[in-house]
Design goal:
It is a single chain. With about 200 residues, the chain is mostly helical. The chain has a domain of about 140 residues. The strands form two sheets. The chain has a two-stranded antiparallel ribbon with strand order 1-2. Helix 3 packs across helix 4, helix 3 runs parallel beside helix 5 and helix 4 crosses helix 5. The longest helix is centred in the middle third of the chain and has 27 residues. The structure holds zinc ion. Zinc ion binds next to loops.
Length: about 200
């Protein structure tokens, strides 16, 4: 997480950090600070969501996906972005806290997974490919849902962590350190902030 910006001046998408270690975690981390009253949302409109998806790898250069033009289509997309993001945050947070996942969040991800599977077709090469009609602004959400399934159902799920900065972060990350004791979303942001605080207290 980077230094505090007032929500009125959203940072550029290019400046958004990707510290989660996985696409689905970076997506959940597009809320800059989960403890803030007035949160900064990196993907607060359809264009920013598409730009962020390209930056984070949820869209590739060959996808040719653009933000929808119609106002109502943009609004509908953003409702889905927010809903999937909250659903994934609830699932990951439950996992980290050792709680059972909220049923609504399970249903939410399940719906996206089925959409993602229905959007692919088996090719002659034996691989699954996105259908041509799936190459729209909802494609990143399908890729994010598949990545979340891969994480939740895989061996790395025990490495899921929440940043130890309990006042101004709330980001989730995958701890890939050997000893499994990483505490911060990033040492140079939250880790440094904590070190500074300890220094000042002395
Ligand atoms: Zn952090």
């Amino acid at each position: 997480m980077s230094p505090t910006h007032p929500p009125s001046t959203p940072r550029s998408v290019a400046a958004a950090r990707l510290d989660g270690g996985r696409l689905c975690l970076d997506f959940v981390n597009t809320i800059h600070d989960r403890y803030a009253v007035d949160v900064e949302d990196y993907v607060q409109d359809a264009q920013r969501f598409i730009a962020w998806s390209e930056r984070a790898g949820a869209l590739g250069p060959g996808d040719g996906v653009h933000a929808p033009r119609a106002v109502h289509a943009r609004a509908a997309l953003m409702r889905e972005v927010v809903a999937l993001r909250e659903c994934l945050h609830a699932l990951f947070a439950a996992r980290i806290d050792g709680l059972s996942p909220p049923a609504e969040a399970v249903r939410g991800l399940d719906r996206w997974l089925h959409e993602a599977w229905a959007s692919q077709a088996l090719g002659a090469d034996g691989q699954m490919h996105w259908r041509a009609d799936a190459r729209d602004a909802r494609l990143p959400l399908k890729r994010i849902a598949l990545d979340a399934l891969d994480l939740l159902g895989g061996p790395n799920v025990s490495r899921l962590r929440r940043c130890a900065n309990t006042t101004s972060c709330g980001w989730l990350f995958l701890d890939t350190t050997k000893n499994g004791r990483r505490r911060w979303c990033a040492m140079e942001t939250c880790g440094t902030a904590e070190k500074m605080q300890r220094y000042r207290r002395r």
